[in-house]
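Per your request, structure below.
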């Protein structure tokens, strides 16, 4: 009997010894050479997580699976780019057991984060010039506040300095005054996502037709976006529809700003690996003026080349056609025909450089450069 008991005891001990690793004990150290360390280090360097201690792992310092899962849970609450999402997805699968065990804590964190007012912002410096002519430099800074009122209602408010001309004195000029740029609430009703109040309104490819703030009601569903309201005491209505068919992006736009009625369409599709072709067409119904363009962009290096033919009166003076060069392109009576070259590059974390060079077939070349940061 004693021998039998001893045999059972030994067998049980061996079974437990070999089985324990399979249970992924949350207090077991992650091996120092585990791939997860490099993965979390990348997230730490990007500011997504704080890592361990000073944000990195050093030497043979190890952390427990529970600690690693805690870092992953933190990363899951952040706004991630595609590369970071892939890293977090891979980590979450590796530490699924620990994350499941933390379910209550993670849910609580989700709720806490969701109820917090999120503060973000952006700033930019913008320069433009006409060859052998005028030049202009301005600055702008904005701070946004986004929060949750309840499960069905969210709010947004944004403060801005407005465009500050680098050559002008701010004292007594009104420049540099902080104003309430946007103030709105978003709610869901009848299957629609609705935003009412002062908000950003964009229309046309890359906001070619309209790109500023207006007061009114916006609603969207399944790729369709509508806005109706007022801009500078003028009636404003925009309609946009975007879809993707067999890998081809298709979009249609309509803008009515007071007496102007402009409609158009644009498309983009992969021409080759890393190369995107695009085309757009717009027409002002009242002035019978047209604007069209077509070109390519090399996505990995950020270079683009587009041929444009833009007739006077084919766009509003509140779209990117005028905003890119600020006051250099005075109003919608201007026109352009020729090549446009662009360069878009992330020069540092959350820092973008955008350069545009326009070479008209007749007239002076125009250059615009913008450095913008997000925080």
């Amino acid at each position: 009997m004693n021998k039998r008991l001893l045999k059972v005891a030994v067998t049980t001990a061996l079974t437990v010894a070999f089985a324990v690793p399979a249970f992924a004990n949350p207090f077991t150290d992650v091996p120092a050479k585990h791939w997860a360390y490099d993965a979390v280090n990348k997230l730490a360097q990007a500011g997504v997580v704080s890592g361990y201690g000073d944000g990195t792992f050093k030497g043979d310092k190890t952390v427990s699976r529970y600690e690693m899962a805690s870092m992953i849970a933190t990363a899951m609450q952040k706004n991630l780019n595609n590369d970071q999402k892939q890293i977090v997805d891979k980590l979450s699968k590796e530490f699924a057991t620990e994350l499941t065990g933390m379910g209550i804590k993670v849910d609580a964190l989700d709720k806490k984060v969701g109820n917090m007012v999120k503060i973000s912002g952006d700033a930019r410096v913008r320069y433009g010039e006409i060859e052998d002519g005028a030049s202009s430099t301005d600055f702008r800074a904005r701070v946004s506040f986004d929060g949750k009122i309840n499960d069905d209602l969210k709010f947004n408010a944004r403060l801005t300095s407005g465009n500050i001309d680098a050559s002008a004195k701010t004292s007594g000029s009104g420049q540099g005054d902080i104003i309430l740029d946007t103030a709105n609430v978003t709610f869901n009703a009848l299957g629609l996502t609705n935003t009412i109040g002062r908000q950003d309104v964009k229309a046309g490819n890359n906001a070619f037709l309209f790109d500023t703030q207006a007061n009114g009601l916006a609603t969207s569903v399944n790729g369709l976006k509508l806005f109706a309201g007022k801009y500078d005491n003028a009636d404003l209505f925009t309609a946009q529809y975007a879809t993707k068919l067999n890998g081809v992006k298709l979009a249609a736009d309509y803008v009515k700003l007071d007496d102007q009625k402009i409609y158009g369409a644009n498309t983009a599709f992969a021409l080759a690996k890393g190369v995107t072709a695009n085309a757009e067409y717009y027409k002002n119904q009242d002035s019978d003026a047209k604007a069209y363009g077509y070109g390519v962009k090399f996505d990995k290096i950020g270079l683009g080349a587009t041929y444009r033919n833009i007739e006077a009166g084919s766009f509003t003076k509140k779209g990117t056609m005028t905003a890119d060069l600020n006051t250099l392109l005075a109003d919608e009576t201007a026109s352009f025909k020729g090549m446009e070259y662009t360069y878009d590059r992330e020069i540092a974390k959350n820092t973008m450089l955008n350069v545009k060079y326009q070479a008209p077939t007749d007239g002076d070349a125009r250059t615009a450069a913008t450095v913008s940061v997000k925080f």
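Residues 134 and 372 are 23 Å apart (CA to CA).

Regards,
D.
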